Amino acid sequence: MNNWTSQNVLSHVAGILLEKKGFEVEYIPSDGQLQFQAIADGDLDFQIEVWEGSHLTAFNNALATGNLVDYGT
User: Fold this and answer.
1) Which of 12, 18, 30, 46 could form a disulfide with 23 if both were Cys (CB 3.0 to 4.6 A apart)?
2) How far is Cα 18 from Cα 26, in angstroms, rounded to an integer?
3) Residue 52: CA atoms inside 13 Å, Cβ hemisphere, count?
């Protein structure tokens, strides 16, 4: 979870849906720039929202590792 409202709301909506499907959900605070590398490193599972205007470089760098998958919009 990042420090902006829309991301927190979307995280909880996704979490509720995942819990209804039987998944265990944990909400972990993360830095907007470091979150993608944390996903690539296996420390986080996914991010529901990417702001390309401010996160594109960090996102593309983590994507280039081959350990991060962009499932699109």
Assistant:
1) 18
2) 11
3) 4
Which residue, among 51, 53, 5, 47, has the nearest Cα to 28 in the 3D structure? 47
**DSSP H helical ranges for the chain:** 5-20, 35-40, 52-64
Two tokens, residue 63: 């994507």
Query: 65: helix, coil or strand?
Result: coil
| Tokens (6 digits) for 11 | 């995280």
| Tokens read off for 21 | 């499907």
Summarize pLDDT for 51-65 with one digit per residue, the tens: 777 888 888 888 898
The whole-model pTM stands at: 0.71
Query: Do the Cβ atoms of 62 and 33 come closer than 8 Å?
Result: no
Residue with tokens 């849906």: 17
